[in-house]
Amino acid sequence: MIVIKNISKSYSDTRALKNISLRVNRGELFGLIGPDGAGKTSLMRILTTLILPDSGKAKMDGLDVVSDFKKIRQIVGYMPGRFSLYQDLSVEENLNFFATVFGTTVEENYDLIRDIYYQIEPFKTRRAGKLSGGMKQKLALSCALIHKPKILILDEPTTGVDAVSRKEFWDMLKKLQTKEITILVSTPYMDEATLCDRVALVQNGQVLDVDSPTRITEKFPRKIIRVRSDETYRLINDLRAYEKAESVFAFGQFVHFVGINDEVETSELDMYLEKRNHKNILAEEIQPGIEDVFMNMQSNI
Amino acid sequence: MKQLKSFIKKEFYHIFRDPRTMLILFGIPIAQLLIFGTVIKSEIKDVHIAIFDQAKDETTMQITNKLLSSGYFILDENLSNTAGIEDIFRKGKVKEVVVFENNFEEKLTREGTAAVQLIADASDPNMARLVTSYTTGIINDYIRKLNPNLQIPLQIEPQVRMYFNEEMKSAYLFVPGTMALILMLISAMMTSISITREKELGTMEILLVSPLRPSQIIIGKVLPYLMLSVINAFVIVLIGHFVFGVPVTGSFILLMLETILFILMALCLGILISTVAKSQMVAMFISMVALMLPTIILSGFIFPIENMPKVLQLLSHIMPARWFIAIIRGIMLKGTGLLFVWKETLILVGMTLIFIAVSVKKFKIRLE
Question: Which chain regions cross the lipid bilayer (chain B) (predicted)?
Fold first, then answer.
């Protein structure tokens, strides 16, 4: 459905995308995972015909993003990273406006947005600018869906949204997938990656890996030890100072430790940390997550 | 068509829901007109003067009475010596002192000449010139009436008549000028701001990804402001007429049509600005600096174009306001018809077409 071939893009002196190639299948929920500045937004803007690539080709449903931009604008639904609806228009007015702009009516495609829209319908006379973050995203999604697009492109839709709304949002995307809409979504949150069919790990304008979330973690060959103590900050510093440490990253209240080889045992760390006067030490081996894969790929570049 | 209609509806929502926009659209024009109307004046009224009359005879009394009954002057003080003159000017209230010499009447009848000295406070030179020329006029008028057969040898007396504005009312000059200024600023500024606001808030991104054509976006932006600016122009003409007494001697419909043309031109200019400006601030800055000053200075609104250096005279040709002011002065004051302003009208039409063409061409169908 989406074919990206050797796309490159530079802004004055920064190279945002370096020879990226990707393929998204019909009906797939595809995730672009990567930190801020990785090039996710640039790639999405090229696909939505908003900017031109410097080199390379991209096709959406067989249409070229450069020469067929007018046709693509009919079949794509786009939700930019920033809330981009009219804040001084009410929920209902926004929806009606985008429906007419796309040459349709709210009634015509109501069944598509019903699940999402019924949650914000009680506030339909409220100005969009006065909605909460989660409701704003639901409205933006409704507006992006109102013309029944074949491809839906969402740029970090859950950034700045509370955990409950985030979960609801992803449930909706799953539901939309069953309605034969191909979805390309970007996110900086690793935990959301596991909800996609396939993900591409993007870093510095390059694709590091493309696979299903479980296979990406399975491919990770290293042993991960999760460590905790009363003083997280000193813990990180001490672990980094340990001679057998390769990478040490904070993950919430835990610290993930990868040794120089997989022979590093949890008991070894226990002893080392006790010597350093840490209290309530807990070190255990865990299954790697996408974050671990990502962090290690980054440190290997 | 349906798309355009809903776009225009949306645009009206933006305008009516934003108090700032409403203020700029309707508050500022009226305030500006009233301020310009009362501040820019080339006529005098109730100027405070002082008189040092050394003669105190019948003629000087009569001249004094004439001065004071003219409505231009108010007597502040009767001085008894010349020493007080400088002090009285320093206080700032009195703008002119009239000094009659000793034995004024006697000298006038016997020798045919008597001296009146007019001393003016020239810290405001324009004011000083006006005041002295008004005074001279009144005194000469009196002397002439006193001696109708007084023949000063070979004296040429110009008979000046100010056509179209017999009383030299400055309101006649500034109403057309202010109208041009206000319409230019409001129209150009509002469209350029409203388009750059969409860019700034990111809504432009969504509009671009939609099937809307550039021409639809541009028309959708122009039409609402065109309608509101026409209302504005109407209000300005009404205020000019009922508050400042500026007549509309020509066809009112022609006046309105020309005004619509000018507004359209300014709106297209605003769109052109928005294709260059990246943010609302830049758009506002360009509209203010690049449009306001040249419109005030180079359009003949305040300073006559004929008195400018050649270079600026040439430059004034590209000021749309110059042509518009010429047109509405013609229609409002002289009562001329299209036959006499067709050249100016054609120039405005040409400018409008150029701006539209360039804006549509420069309007970016992508983000960069």
Answer: 21-40, 171-195, 222-244, 250-273, 285-305, 340-360
